[in-house]
Amino acid sequence: MFGFSAQTLYPLWACRDPVRGYGQPPDEPADSDVTVTLPEEQIDAIIGRVRQRLGDAPQDRAEPAPASQWTEVGRLPGMVADTVSGDGRLVCRNVRAFVSGTVVERAIVEIDGARIMSISQNAPAGTSGARVIDGQGRFLMPGIIDAHAHLSMMEHTKRYPHQPKGAEPLRDGLRGHLVGSTLRRAVRMGVTTIRDVGAYADTVLDVRQAMRYGAFIGPRVLSCARIVSPTAPGGRFFPGMYREADGPDDIRRAVREQIRSGADFLKIMSTGARSVELENPHPSQCTPAEMQAFIDEAHRQGYRDAAHCEGLGGTELAVVAGADTIEHGFYLNQRPDLLDRMAASGAVLVAKSNCGRPETDPDGGTVYPVGPDAMETYVRDADAAGARIIGACCGSTPAHIAEIRRVVDGLRAA
Fold first, then answer.
1. Do residues 246 and 231 touch, judged by C-beta distance below 8 A?
2. Exposed e or buried b for every residue in 255-280, given b needs 16+ CB within 10 A?
3. Which of 239, 284, 332, 409 has the fewest CB within 10 Å, making it most exposed?
């Protein structure tokens, strides 16, 4: 995945000399003037060790799993916990429906249980026993998918208790009930799948299991469990959200721990977050070897991965290493070569704007500036390069869902 130039491999004199120190080449041959010739395999071993010290060892790298080896969708914990079910057959007639990017007028949609069986302008063969609904010409919308959410991060919203001085301390289990309330509200708004990309401790996993066993009805939830991250200030700001890991071996262990916990996909902090005042979001937080270990381990076990990428340093690292999704990717319009690479590999840009120091909107939600480049610009350039794009809203509120419109506006301007 990574190449090496001749300049990358230090000559032997770059090692520490007891007299000259580091980096001083010998002026003259030694007095003994002895030439030592090493066997080729020993030279290869030395080069390999140098590559490891540079943080980019090519050995022990698995190729991404072919499509046939991805974990079966039905085995993903979010799908196992899915409670979506239907009560017999349902026929919705006289509706407007989206089919392959076009609108079908006066459509008839046949549903059996939780599966859409057909969308056509012809009545299904036999509606006996089916519940029939007349849509009266209205749009029948597909379920909305929120591809980037932090369900348990709600301290800056009106829905989180802001206590007066002297009030009873909040109990540990309260956050889970608030997340449950958010999920009930989301499904009523038409959000049927939420991809949670980082939560406090196991809150979202616990709430998802509660839905599985009938505590309440909500959308399907796909979770990354804890975010894998090199040791960084974010671990202090979001206690219990990160699994901090350093070095390739610890990164691999962290990936396995999240799969054990019930993750549907894995996520890594390739850069810091601009929402953390002590983090610089521009350089990469990982070494190449750590990023490659993360992606290799996820793919080896048949799971997709996501990389939090704000600045170009970490974005480049994730794209070159083969990350499946690039979350944010604010400055990709400055690197057309990375957009071309994403288009070629099929990597997905999860575009969203709200990632920065908070600003409160009139509805009491939280909106964040996108940074120097307008969202429409980098979305438009990504689309022009042929990269796959998903619009995300980072929260199922009207203010957040309005962000998806910004993605659409960016594409319209292309």
1. yes
2. beebbeebbbbbbbbbbbbbbbeebe
3. 239
Count other Cβ atoms within 10 Å, centred on residue 320: 16
Mean per-residue pLDDT for 206-215?
A: 96
Q: Residue 212 and residue 206: Cα distance in Å, rounded?
A: 10
SS (H, E, C) 197-219: CCCCCCHHHHHHHHHHCCCCCCC
CB 392 within 8 A of CB 403: yes
Give the distance from CA 147 to its chain's centroid. Answer: 8
Cβ(328)–Cβ(310) under 8 Å? yes
3-state secondary structure of 73: helix
Distance CA 282, CA 331 (A): 10
Quick one: pLDDT at residue 77?
A: 94
Q: How many CB atoms lie within 10 A of CB 41?
A: 8
Parallel, antiparallel or unpaired: strands 191-196 and 359-360 = unpaired
Q: Which residues pair with 17 in a beta bridge?
A: 21
pTM assigned to the model: 0.76
Mean pLDDT highest for which of 59-68, 271-280, 320-329? Answer: 320-329
| Count of beta carbons in the 10 Å neighbourhood of residue 57 | 19
Rounded to whole angstroms, the Cα distance separating 356 from 51 reads 36
For 246-267, how does the pLDDT look when each residue is reduced to its tens digit (9 = 90+)?
Answer: 999 999 999 999 999 999 999 9
> What is the C-alpha separation between 88 and 274, in angstroms, rounded?
49
Q: Give the pLDDT score at 152.
A: 94
Q: Is 105 in contact with 96 (CB distance < 8 Å)? A: yes
Single-letter amino acid code for the residue at 292 = Q
How far apart, in whole angstroms, are the C-alpha atoms of residue 52 and residue 344? 28
Tokens (6 digits) for 96:
């407007």
95: number of Cβ within 10 Å: 21
| Rg (alpha carbons) of the chain, rounded to whole number | 26
Which residue spans within 101-250 are E strands per DSSP?
102-112, 115-120, 131-134, 139-140, 144-149, 191-196, 220-223, 227-229, 242-244
Closest among 87, 9, 95, 20 to 52, alpha carbons compared: 9
Tell me: pLDDT of 356 over 90: no
What integer is the mean pLDDT of 371-400? 72
Structure tokens at 93: 């007639």
